[in-house]
Amino acid sequence: MQSQAKGFTYVKVPYNYIAYYEDGKWNEGQLRTDDTVTISAMSTALHYGQQAFEGLKAYRRKDGRINLFRVKDNALRFQLSCDFLKMPRIPVEMFVKAVEDTVLANHEYVPPYGSNATLYIRPFIIGIGDNLGLRPANSYIFSVIVSPVSSYFSGPARPVDMVTSPYDRAAPHGTGHVKVGGNYAASLKAQVEAKAVGYADTIFLDPKTHTKIEEVGAANFFGITKKQEYVTPTSPSILDSITNRSLKQLAKEALKLTVLETDIHLADLNQLDEAAACGTAAVVTPIGSITHEGVKMQFPHHEEMGPITLKLYQLLTGIQMGDLEDVYEWTTTLDPLK
Questions:
Q1: Looking at the DSSP assignment, which residues form a beta bridge with residue 219?
Q2: Active site residue 57
Q3: What does the pLDDT read at residue 218?
Q4: CATH classification of the domain holding 248
Q5: Residue spans of alpha helices (H) in the chain
Q6: Contact (Cβ atoms closer than 8 angstroms) between residue 277 and residue 220
Q7: Domain match, 133 and 104 both
Q8: Of residues 179, 226, 296, 311, which has the active-site annotation?
Q9: Does 335 reside within a domain?
Q10: d(Cα 8, Cα 124) in Å, to the nearest integer?
């Protein structure tokens, strides 16, 4: 087994998947060993940002098999992104098979059980071809690349400090709810500036008033109130995180918590006992404090992961790794020996 996970950085593995869309249809697609693409310098992905991607992981089980987590949900969200940027949909069956084939072809690079590392999976689509005017491309590439990774934030899962951003990641009714590169490009300046002064990441506020929490860098935000409620922001410019979706269901059904999707005002952060970022890359990362305009708000559980956040993390990762029964039918199990 060759995990070679080095933080959240790319490690080249033997195979990736590629398919082409031409003349109104997708070709069959294939696995290949080259991890580069050659495209026209006039491709819409380069000039107009016509591209989208997904992020999911493969988890090594104790019995040696491999779990995928909610891969069909990623396929459906990918279709939403394609629709919004006027790109051809990838059929769910094609998306799932491409992911499964790529993972199985690189199964030796899925990190071992108990290593706190996984195989990150990045499906993406780009508009290609000789395009000058602002219009959707006629040709596209759909690809799946994978890489072994460990933690997104450095160090163990201890609470991290964050700072609010004066910049906006996405506008209401814009592209914030879909997983496209432009949203992440818009977050780079804020992230770099936050890390330069010692923070783990930045927190984006609502564009209209800058008084409410929206997202944590490239992740969703949730908190546990003093009344032991699970609260997470609601906004048309927030990505519908599959991890957050799962945590909300676990909070409601497994922990019997009230789940609230509502505005989270900076002025009301003192009502939270615990706070965290969640997403495929971040998993569940506790937040110890949030600094806004020089004023630091420190949460009661700022030295270690809070008890409810910890329970949610254990439930989520237990299902992902195959240690807990998957009563929600979220996982797909692959056997590399078959």
A1: 216
A2: no
A3: 82
A4: 3.20.10.10
A5: 44-47, 71-84, 92-105, 181-196, 242-253, 307-321
A6: yes
A7: yes
A8: 179
A9: no
A10: 18
How far apart (Å, rounded) are the C-alpha atoms in residues 286 and 194? 17
As given in the structure block, the two tokens for residue 22 are: 């031409």
pLDDT higher than threshold 80 for residue 1: no
Decide: 310 and 247 in contact? Cβ < 8 Å.
no
Q: Are residues 81 and 183 in the same domain?
A: no
Same domain, yes or no: 30 and 140: yes
Structural domain boundaries, residue 197: 160-321
Q: Which amino acid is at 132?
A: L
According to the model, what pLDDT value does residue 155 have?
45
DSSP labels for 214-261?
EEETTEEEEEEETT-EEEE---TTS---HHHHHHHHHHHHTS--EEEE
Examine residue 223 and state whether it is found in any structural domain, yes or no: yes
Task: Supply the pTM of this predicted model.
Answer: 0.94
Q: How many domains does the chain have?
A: 2
Phi and psi at residue 11, to the nearest 5°: -120, 120
| Residue 181: predicted pLDDT | 95
130: number of CA atoms within 13 Å, CB side?
0
Distance CA 243, CA 246 (A): 5
Rounded alpha-carbon distances, angstroms, from residue 84 to 133, 233, 326: 19, 22, 32
Q: How far apart are CA 223 and CA 109, in angstroms?
A: 34
